[in-house]
Amino acid sequence: MSIIKRGKYYHLKRRVPKRYATVDQRPFIYKSFKTDSREEAQSKADSYWRELLGAWDAELAGQGPLLSLASFLPRSWPTGGAINGCLHAEQVPAAEQVNPDRGTHDL
C-alpha cells in the first residue's frame, strides 16, 4: 500500500486495478487521511482499500451505486463526505438539483 506524506499529512496513492476500470475510470486513487501518524494512516488506508474493493466488486456484480460519479463532476462541486465518490442530494449545489415537481433541473 503506497502511503505518502504530502505537507504534514499522509495520503494513500494507489492505481485503480484494471479489472475495475469499467466502474471507476480514475487511473489513481488519492485519499488524505488527515493525520501525521504513519501508523494511523496505514491502518486507515487498509480499511479504506478493503471497503473500496468491496464496493467495486458489488458494482461489477450489479449491486452497487455508480462509484465513478465524482470523476465526471466539475472540481468546483463539493465532494466532502462523499462515500466512494457518490454524492448525496444535500451535497449537490442547489442550482443543479432536480425539481421534483417539474422533473427537470433548475438551472
Observed structural traits:
three-stranded antiparallel beta sheet; 2 helices; two-stranded antiparallel sheet; about 110 residues; alpha+beta
List the helices and strands and how they pair.
Blueprint: E1 3-6, E2 9-15, E3 28-32, H1 38-60, H2 69-72, E4 98-99, E5 104-105
Question: What report would you give on this structure?
Answer:
This protein has 2 helices and 5 strands; from the N terminus they run βββααββ. The chain is α+β, with helices and mostly antiparallel strands and 107 residues long. It has one domain. The chain has a 3-stranded antiparallel beta sheet, with helices on one face. A hairpin with a 2-residue loop joins strand 1 and strand 2. The chain starts with a strand and ends with a strand. 11% of the residues are buried. About 13% of the residues have low confidence.
Task: Quickly describe the structure.
The protein is an alpha+beta fold.
Radius of gyration: 16 Å
Low-confidence stretches: 79-92
Topology order in helix (H) and strand (E) letters:
EEEHHEE
Q: Sheet bearing the most strands, described?
A: 3 strands, antiparallel
Distance between the termini: 43 Å
Provide the domain count.
1
Strand coverage percent: 15-25%
Strand order of the largest sheet: 1-2-3
What is the helical fraction, as a range of percent?
Answer: 25-40%
